Amino acid sequence: MSHLEKLTISLGVRGRTSFIDGIHLDNCILSRLPHLHTFVFNIITDFVGSTEHFEPSADHIRRTFIQRGHHADCYIDYHHVNMPRCHVYSVPLNMERMRHISHGFPGGTFINVRILSMLDDSHSFEHNFFAQISRSFPLLSRLVVRNTTPQKEKRSHQLVKIDLTVSMYISIMWNSFFLTSKHVYLVFASFMFNMNT
What we know:
The protein has six helices and eight strands. The protein is α/β, with parallel strands linked by helices. The protein has two domains: 93 residues, no CATH class; 102 residues, no CATH class.
């Protein structure tokens, strides 16, 4: 494996005492791959139980990757006191899947992503977030949404009718759309409305 030139990883890690950052990745994996010239990553570290009071910022984690020559973006959710979550990924992301984005997702353009899952049980996915998702992932073929928190902002006047053209577009482009939510109609209608605007 030491002659590996290209590495693409999508990694979910739970139960560490710290987030996986560029320093850790470089020391434990990348330094052992001297011929590596392309590294694409999508890493989520969650349920981190830290004994320290240091809470690294997304900027701090991002810099640990950039200082090692990896273009990256990152966001951190500290929504549970002892269970923070960090999502760091290559920019541009040359993967067809992106897993478990949450309300903290900063946006961007992901033209290669065809399969997206959204997961957040502590914050609702609001209308503006769905607008951001529809702009960020223009070529989705599968969307999985898991959210148990009701939307705070009800936009019923915008959600009443869904244009037939948009419905046809969705039928043609999406292979599947899965929702796990107590508020399925609002989530779906909000996303459909954003596809039309």
